[in-house]
């Protein structure tokens, strides 16, 4: 499997883990300095984001992936994923979102890790 395909699978795992609330799985995908930029402009560390998953601030029901584009340059990569997500966030009701995630990654000990993600809609 090529590097691009590996990273595409990590993106799918990322969503599966959020839906399953698999905290250990998510942590294994993230670098120690991972940060998430929500479409609201809020910046969160991995710990803050994971706490939001645990306490119900973020609740993900499903994700259908429309497009995943990966670019690798040595030990760094970028990836844009477009997915139709059903979620309830920040106390709002369950609804469908067309979410785009723009991710950066780096290879650490032969494993790709997400270093950042920026959420928007498409």
TrEMBL record:
Transmembrane segments: none annotated. InterPro entries: DUF4440, NTF2-like_dom_sf. Residues 7-113 form the DUF4440 domain. This is DUF4440 domain-containing protein. The lineage of its organism: Bacteria, Bacillati, Bacillota, Clostridia, Eubacteriales.
């Amino acid at each position: 499997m090529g590097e691009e395909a590996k990273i595409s699978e990590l993106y799918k795992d990322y969503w599966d883990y959020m839906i399953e609330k698999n905290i250990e799985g998510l942590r294994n995908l993230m670098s120690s300095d991972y940060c998430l930029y929500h479409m609201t402009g809020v910046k969160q560390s991995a710990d803050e984001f994971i706490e939001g998953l645990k306490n119900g601030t973020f609740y993900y029901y499903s994700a259908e992936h429309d497009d995943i584009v990966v670019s690798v340059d040595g030990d760094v990569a970028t990836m844009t994923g477009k997915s139709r997500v059903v979620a309830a966030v920040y106390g709002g009701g369950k609804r469908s979102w067309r979410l785009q995630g723009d991710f950066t990654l780096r290879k650490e000990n032969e494993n790709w890790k997400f270093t950042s993600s920026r959420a928007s809609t498409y």
